[in-house]
UniProtKB/TrEMBL annotation:
Family label: Belongs to the anaerobic coproporphyrinogen-III oxidase family. HemW subfamily.
Role, per record: Probably acts as a heme chaperone, transferring heme to an unknown acceptor. Binds one molecule of heme per monomer, possibly covalently. Binds 1 [4Fe-4S] cluster. The cluster is coordinated with 3 cysteines and an exchangeable S-adenosyl-L-methionine.
Localization in the cell: Cytoplasm
Gene for this chain: hemW
Species lineage: Bacteria, Bacillati, Actinomycetota, Actinomycetes, Pseudonocardiales
Protein name listed in UniProt: Heme chaperone HemW
Amino acid sequence: MSTPDDLHLPDSALQGLGTRPFGVYVHVPFCATRCGYCDFNTYTAGELGSGAAPEDWLEGLRRELDLAARRLGTPPAADTVFVGGGTPSLLGAGGLAAVLDAVRQSFGLAADAEVTTESNPESTSPELFAGIRDAGYTRVSLGMQSAAPHVLRVLDRTHTPGRPVEAAAEARAAGFDHVNLDLIYGTPGERTEDLQASLDAVLESGVDHVSAYALIVEDGTALARRVRKGEIPMPDDDVLASDYELLDAMMAKAGLRWYEVSNWAASERARCRHNLGYWLGGDWWGAGPGAHSHVGGVRWWNVKHPARYTATLADAALPVGGQESLTAEDRHLERVMLELRLAEGLPLDALDADGVREARRAAADGLLSTRDLDGGRAVLTDNGRLLADAVVRRLVS
């Protein structure tokens, strides 16, 4: 385990910096309430008390980004910026503008940089969207999860069912061409008609990107405690598969095509370039409490608590909580695991002889496209997407 500011980036990691996609992720750890399914590094005001105000976090962020730029030597301008959390929209337009200014001052932005912020629909407004558009944000991602009130209650989501679609319309009116809505499917008690109504609302909103994730019951969450007590059942795998097929069919009919197993876009320009940087082995600096970074095969992560984060940076030290250097085997596994989830798939020459043989068996089983395999790529079929993790295990075993 590392101690603060002992981040070691060897020359081998820094070689090629700037030839690969380079992004900046900023973690905003603040939430108004805690959702029952969430295990992200987030804190409510009551949990933090007076020990970690947003103003202190922002000052710490500025210091981290300055230290980051120096540590990287001559860092490339950021191709992408993604402000996530937590609930970044709680910072307001002024706070989000200050975040982007800090990135711009430390790293600079590429001329065509994609700049995204996540937002909770209840803490957005036309004024917020107009303000962040003027500040330089190009993309907004809104948490919707469901349009069914009883599903939102199970998830402990506090927004009103129609608010995400209203917020998406406000963002588009403010000049955002790229707007995403997040969905969660498979929540206990969600019926097929509930999911269909949610999808209808999403597609009628005119957004150009949709992310949809199967509900995962994470250890330590309120949802996990309810499942353990028998108050609600675990999500059913067969229901999850049926839900996925329904939403994929409805997306395709509306002109949104899958480009990653859990993501659909109306065009290539609508794809989330920041996330593609993760999936294609790019570099990124993750700033903020608990944020993870990766440069040239070295991964590290920050200390989690906002108070410790800001205190460490006040001493002019990077808030590193730990780091690891990925082995060739680690990097191979991650490449297969991530690229196989993309619509373009994985180049067959990325696999060893055993992996190629297993890919051909997977194609015979209907999990990989035979036509694409003949063309030199391992591409998941519709059935393969339902079993993507199992296909990965076969290719790297």
